[in-house]
Structure formats: structure tokens, C-alpha cells
Design goal:
With 553 residues, the protein is an alpha+beta fold. It folds into 4 domains: 10-69 and 120-208 and 316-385, 3-Layer(bba) Sandwich (FAD/NAD(P)-binding domain); 78-116 and 211-311, D-Amino Acid Oxidase, Chain A, domain 2 (2-Layer Sandwich); 388-422; 430-539, Alpha-Beta Plaits, CATH 3.30.70.20. 25% of the residues lie in helices and 24% in strands. The protein is built from 15 helices and 24 strands. Strands 1, 2, 8, 9, 10, 13, 19 and 20 form an 8-stranded mixed beta sheet that branches. Strands 6-5-15-16-17-14-18 form a 7-stranded mixed beta sheet. Strand 16 and strand 17 form a beta hairpin. The longest helix has 19 residues, at 341-359. It is globular and about 65 Å long.
Length: 553
């Protein structure tokens, strides 16, 4: 945009929250429960609360129970399907081995948990928050940080609206306002764009291991009632992935009105640049143990999202001058359980308790009390029990690492967090794990049949993704030339495969290869920001109210 000084309006609050996910909404609700007079604003970049929320989701209700104890009695109760049966499989191409559930550590037992839509849980919590007087602004993306003169966080700036593709204001240009708060809570989810900036600015990762990620791809199907087994939770790992190229796991959950949620998680430390998480997911659905579920069924929704997988050793310092990190912005997901919403809610509660106390007294700008609360919380205790599962899986592979990780969970559980391994390190960042294409075998994937397996574009259509085309591309290349000399010529163009939405293409134009970014397809999963081998792609927020609109996801 032209170098014109924009005069921005501002609004003052006690607390500003970035993100209306489970952690941000929990923080707002708890703050109002403590003191109804606290003035709170939540910014949500999606068109509505819950529209960008994607999770498996088998939900541990312990966070909800702590926050809204009577949620089960609500007329708009967001969770109704209790888990009735757990199944675990190690898959081969033609079959698999079922693992006895009694071998699983207690933490892996889903008894008492619920299957449903985390997006619907957030819609419910959003209504609870609004009924308490919280101001929620969906459709407004927090695009920049605002600082005080002393370097502390003052708040955030809402993204400008009405800027053309050329970066110049259009006739409907509206400058984004600033929201200032005594404290700002960042609840953006995994790899939040502002959280990433804060972590770097305040060196919040110093003394902690690197953060690790996975990509979760999910479809929602409505199946033949005769095949529906309400309450069944099925997890698997193994085929079609192999440890040579990369690894991960899958899930299948039966819930609601003949719904089946099927999903696939690929750890983003995979090595082979020819691997496509999306194609691996499509292939997974053809396995003999699963294919019958989808025959004659209807696929009704699709989405993808990055997951934080670093766990205990990768949680950054949580408090900094003027603000805190909560939920997946801090990395509270439990990898072997594939669960994080309960910890997200609990972290929002912890942050709210500290902020409410700080607002009532002359407290410092850096809330060390929140950090202290985490150190003594059930969140940290739970993450400590599973801290070696991911490193063991990475170092030793599926057949050795996963059972050894399970044994380590047992030892940790029995001996209160003790492990013979201590605390294993994760090693390299995910972006450093790809091998050059010349060192890897190409992977050939079958064409989709349009019945059980599908292509990316028809899938993105089901995500209800939309972006105004005449706006600046929100996927920023730091060095465009580097994409050709390294991303393409060294690594074989992995962005065309790791993106689950068909955003990136290499096309031939006048005898030369051109990099095309179809930003309008972006489902905001953030995988490109994480996996690009040169860290050359920076995911930023597009205009507010854009991206996917997930329903029942």
C-alpha cells in the first residue's frame, strides 16, 4: 500500500483476546465469572464463531466441566454422543492387527469422553460468553501487533479492508481499528501468525525444545444407518505410511445422526518431498478395514489444520510484557491422545485467573503468576506423562517406537512422571527434515474414483472456502527466486503436495517454470508456513470473514 500515514481509531478494553477458539472463549467466560465488570473483546477472523475450528474430535469433557459445570443440561448441549467402544489397529496393506485395549495406559482410555464437533462446542461457548457480556467480533482478523513505548504489548490492529491486489486502496477501503487492552490473550491456535511474531520478539522458545507439528486432514460423512455404530472410536497407524518416507496415524469416529468423522494425521517431520498427506489420506480410506464404511455413503464436509505436536518439552514461556499465550498457540495438545481442547480450556481458565487478579491490583505487565499456575497444573502433568512418545516414534519408527512409547507412558503413570529415558529431545525443526528430491523415490498415487477418494479442488469446495480475489495475496514469499532455485530445483516442489487445498502450483510459461499461488483456495491450515524447507512462505491473515466455513467439524 502507498506510504500514506493512516489515522486509526482505537477502542480500549481491560482484556483483548485474539481468537474465539476453546482457549480464548474459556478465558473470556472465566474472567466474567470472576468479575462481570471486566471489559472484554474477542476478535475472530472467521465469518462466525466456530467456522475455522477443526478437530477430530473425541473430547475430554474435563475442561468444560471446570468452566461450565451444567453444560450437559443446556438446551443447546454441544456434545451428545458418548464413547462406547475403543479400537486400536496397526495396519498393513491387506489387513491389520488389533491391539487389546487393556494394554493401553489409562490416559488412552476414552471412557467418559464424547464424540462431536469442536466447532459446535465453540459456538455454544460463544453464546455463553455473549450472555455474560463479552463482546465478540467475528469477521475481524487481528493482523498486526501494537506496542507501548516500553516495548510491552498494547493490543492488536484489525486488518484493513478494501485493498486491491496491487496493494492500493479501493473505493471501499476501510482502515482497521486498534484494540487496546491492559492485557492481550493470544488464542490463535497452532502456528498463529501473531503468536509466531511474539515468540520470536520475546525469545519465548529460549530454553525449550523446538515446536513440532502435524497436519490433520478430515472428512465428515453420513453413512448407511445399518453400518453406523454410534460411539465407536477407531484409531490406527501404519499403512499407507511407512517410516522411510514419514509416519502418522488415522481415526474413524461414529457419532450423531449417522455421522462418521474420518481423519488422517501426518507428522510434518516427514522426509520424502514427494509424499502428499492429502493423497495418503485418500488412499487410507480404501483399506479393507475401512472401505465398507464409505460405500454408498455421502461425503458432506472437508477440512485441514496444523496440529502442535511438540508437547511438554516444546511449550514456550507463556507470559511476556502485556500478554499471554493459551491453547494451541502454546502447544498444549496431547499427541498420543489426539486431544487438546480440554487443555486449551484449562489454559484459558488459568490465564483468566491470573489476569483477573492482576487487574485488581498493581501487577507487573508480565504475568509470571500464569506461568507459575501452568507449572503446577494438570496440563503440564498430563503432557509430562507422554513427553517421549513423539521422539521415540520419530527416532525408532512405528513398529518399535510406538510400543516403546506406550511402555514409557505406563512407567510415567506408575512412577509419577519418571521415565528411564528422561526427557528426549525432538531434534530438528520440521522444515529441516525434508531430503533433496534426488535422494528420494517418487511416490505414485492412484487417481480418485469420485466415490470414496477425491481430488483437492472438489474437497476444498466442501470446506465452503472463499476469499475475495482482488486483495493482496496473504501467502507472502520472502524471496520469490528461492522458490525456484531451492523449493523446485532441489526439493522437487513439495508445496504442491503438502498443501491440502491446491494453493501452490508450478506451471510452465514460455519455456520457464512459474510459481502460482491460488490464495483463494487456502483453508488456513498453516502447513506451508511450517514445512517450507527454506521457511520462505509466511502465512498472514487475509481480510476478515474469509477462509473456510466449517459445519459440524
Amino acid at each position: 500500500m502507498s506510504d500514506i500515514e493512516i489515522e486509526r481509531e482505537s477502542m480500549e478494553y481491560d482484556v483483548v483476546i485474539v481468537g474465539a477458539g476453546p482457549s480464548g472463549l474459556a478465558a473470556a467466560i472465566r474472567l466474567k465469572q470472576i468479575n462481570p465488570d471486566i471489559n472484554i473483546a474477542i476478535l475472530e477472523k472467521a465469518a462466525e464463531v466456530g467456522a475455522h475450528i477443526l478437530s477430530g474430535a473425541v473430547i475430554d469433557p474435563s475442561g468444560l466441566d471446570e468452566l461450565v459445570p451444567d453444560w450437559r443440561d443446556a438446551s443447546d448441549c454441544p456434545l451428545e454422543t458418548k464413547v462406547t467402544k475403543d479400537e486400536f489397529y496397526i495396519l498393513g496393506e491387506a489387513g491389520g492387527i488389533g491391539l487389546p485395549t487393556f494394554l493401553m495406559p489409562p490416559l488412552m482410555n476414552n471412557h467418559g469422553n464424547y464424540i462431536g464437533s469442536l466447532g459446535n462446542v465453540c459456538r455454544y461457548l460463544g453464546q455463553v460468553a455473549e450472555n455474560l457480556g463479552v463482546e465478540i467480533y467475528p469477521g475481524f482478523a487481528a493482523s498486526a501487533l501494537v506496542y507501548n513505548d516500553d516495548g510491552s504489548v498494547k493490543g492488536v490492529q484489525v486488518g484493513d479492508m478494501g485493498i486491491g491486489r496491487d496493494g492500493e486502496p479501493k473505493s471501499d477501503f476501510t482502515p482497521g481499528i486498534e484494540l487496546h487492552g491492559k492485557y492481550t490473550i493470544f488464542a490463535e491456535g497452532a502456528r498463529g501468525s501473531l503468536s509466531k511474531e511474539l515468540i520470536a520478539k520475546y525469545n519465548l522458545e529460549d530454553g525449550h525444545d523446538v515446536q513440532k507439528y502435524g497436519i490433520g486432514i478430515k472428512e465428515l460423512w453420513q453413512i448407511d444407518p445399518s453400518k453406523h455404530k454410534k460411539g465407536l472410536v477407531r484409531h490406527s497407524f501404519g499403512w499407507p505410511l511407512n517410516d522411510k518416507d514419514g509416519n502418522g496415524g488415522a481415526f474413524l469416529y461414529h457419532w450423531g445422526d449417522n455421522y462418521v468423522s474420518v481423519g488422517f494425521v501426518v507428522h510434518l517431520n516427514y522426509k520424502n518431498p514427494y509424499l502428499s498427506p492429502f493423497e495418503e489420506f485418500q488412499k487410507f480410506k480404501t483399506h479393507p478395514f475401512f472401505v465398507d464404511t464409505f460405500e454408498g455413503a455421502k461425503r458432506i464436509a472437508y477440512g485441514a489444520r496444523a496440529l502442535t505436536e511438540g508437547g511438554y518439552q516444546s511449550v514456550p514461556t507463556l507470559a511476556f510484557p502485556g500478554g499471554v499465550l493459551v491453547g494451541c498457540s502454546a502447544g498444549f495438545m496431547n499427541v498420543p491422545r489426539i486431544k487438546g481442547s480440554h487443555n486449551a480450556i484449562k489454559s484459558g481458565i488459568l490465564a483468566a485467573n491470573s489476569i483477573a487478579k492482576a487487574l485488581s491490583e498493581d501487577a507487573p505487565k508480565t504475568l509470571t503468576s500464569y506461568q507459575d499456575a501452568y507449572e503446577n497444573s494438570s496440563i503440564k502433568k498430563e503432557l509430562k506423562l507422554v513427553r517421549n512418545v513423539k521422539p521415540l516414534w520419530t527416532k525408532l519408527g512405528t513398529m518399535i517406537g510406538v510400543p516403546l512409547g506406550g511402555l514409557d507412558m505406563w512407567v510415567n503413570t506408575i512412577f509419577g512422571g519418571f521415565s528411564f529415558f528422561g526427557t528426549l529431545a525432538h531434534g530438528k525443526k520440521d522444515s529441516d527434515c525434508l531430503k533433496p528430491a534426488s535422494e528420494c523415490e517418487k511416490i505414485t498415487y492412484p487417481k480418485p474414483d469420485g466415490k470414496i477418494t477425491f481430488d483437492r479442488l472438489s474437497s476444498v469446495f466442501l470446506s465452503n472456502t472463499n476469499h475475495e480475489e482482488d486483495q493482496p495475496v496473504h501467502l507472502k514469499l520472502k524471496n520469490p527466486e528461492l522458490q525456484k532455485t531451492s523449493e523446485l530445483e532441489v526439493f522437487g516442489g513439495p508445496s504442491t503436495r503438502y498443501c491440502p487445498a491446491g494453493v501452490y502450483e508450478w506451471v510452465e510459461e514460455n519455456g520457464a517454470m512459474k510459481y502460482v499461488i491460488n490464495a483463494q483456495n487456502c483453508v488456513h491450515c498453516k502447513t506451508c508456513d511450517i514445512k517450507d524447507p527454506n521457511q520462505n512462505i509466511n502465512w498472514t491473515t487475509p481480510q476478515g470473514a474469509e477462509g473456510p466455513i466449517y459445519s459440524n467439524m
